[in-house]
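thread from #wetlab-drylab

HS: before we spend reagent money on co-crystallization trials with guanosine-5'-triphosphate, can we at least see a predicted complex? here's what I'd submit
DV: go for it
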Amino acid sequence: MTKIQDHRVAAGFIDTARVYLKAGKGGDGCSSFRREKYIPYGGPDGGHGGKGGSIWFEASANITTLAEIACHPHITASDGCPGKGNRKDGHYGEDHSLYVPCGTVVKRAGTVLADLKEHGQRFMAAKGGRGGRGNTAFKTRFNTAPKIAELGEPGDEYEARLELSVLADVGFVGMPNAGKSTLLSAISAARPKIADYPFTTLNPNIGMVQHKGKSFAAADIPGLIEGAHEGKGLGVLFLKHILRTKILVHLVDPVGFAGMKPEKAVRVIEKELKDYHPLLAKKITILVVNKADLPEAAKVQEALEKKYKKREVFLISAVTGKGVSRLLDRIIKLLPTVKQADLYQASADSVPAALQPKGGFTVELDSEGVFSVKGRRVEKLIAMTNFNQPDSWDRLHRIFKTIGMDKALKKAGCAAGDMVRVGGKEFQWTDATMAAGRPGKFAYKYRKFDQEYGD
Ligand SMILES: Nc1nc2c(ncn2[C@@H]2O[C@H](COP(=O)(O)OP(=O)(O)OP(=O)(O)O)[C@@H](O)[C@H]2O)c(=O)[nH]1
Ligand SMILES: [Mg+2]
């Protein structure tokens, strides 16, 4: 961690966090038979396992930082309980909800899963596993006493990255000491720190501005300096927070900054914004000369008006309030005209594995000479098969045959004695294995089961 980030931790503002999610495993199904006096052949009565708990993220307007989550990054939801005899189904695992600030983007391996913008918006980030079915589910007229019960499905497990991109309508940018925080505190209830030295603001501040019956959110970020987009100063850490604003207000200090003339400072800031992200250059940027009470201010405004003929240049004083109302009028008029495309869009393939369509499987011969079968459905089938039950083996073989896995393996060159790996388990493929399936008149039934099989 760099020094700057350390400082941010101390300041309590964390805008990125890495979290390890582990949803609950489904409870195992139960294989049992009804045994009661005077009830011969009581039949199967094993209950189903309960569903595992899922992990949800919920946007909340009452939170402004990811600090809480960053400090407790291991998040698990509880497992479902196993089923029991007498048709008792297991309890469901409890879902786990985590509150995140509005504007939090959830990513997995670089792809955006969700963008939580509105208060109360929820997203299931990790789905709990399905409970295994008890042997009551496997009773058929051909097999009235099945000794098969599924294991619970494992829950989703992965590392997610949370990124907070503050949601404000208007962003204040400018060199340090230009008066950004002073302006925010003058027009909203926010009370950022204000002082007569550069880099007073260390974290973004957000305030709700009420003006003539309309309201909007404004964000003040730390001052920018030359080279900010390359990491100089503090500003770069927070530039992403203005990416989603609709309008930028560029405050200019008529005194200049560190010997730099105001006109040059304007050019420097605009270049920094453009270099950080082309989107920032495209935003409507209102030029505002602050500190109108100082004698230099009017001249600077005139000079900027001359230079940027097509742009309006406002003259305000955040301290005395001069010109502020006019500026707010302009902002309120402009805001509804800005239509913003979504910056973060959840892509279709970024949906968590458990929510993806089932799909088929692929067979590949790996470097160790093992035939590796991959596919969500077959992997799930293996994970939910109880290999301690001989009948479960039979069922597995039948399903392999029905879904065409033995044919696919033969086609790939698999012969008796070769090793096959599916879902982390290895089997030796034998003719008996292939012959174990009983296709023919059962094929349709298992195909039907196969269609039902899944979520
Ligand atoms: N005379 C005068 N001084 C002002 C005005 N607005 C702000 N200031 C002063 O300028 C100094 C800097 O103000 P800040 O609001 O902290 O500036 P900032 O842009 O937030 O600065 P950083 O957070 O360091 O980037 C303070 O001493 C303010 O009192 C103004 O309209 N007139
Ligand atoms: Mg400030």
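DV: The domain at 357-452 is CATH 3.30.300.350 (GMP Synthetase; Chain A, domain 3).
HS: ok that's useful, forwarding to the group
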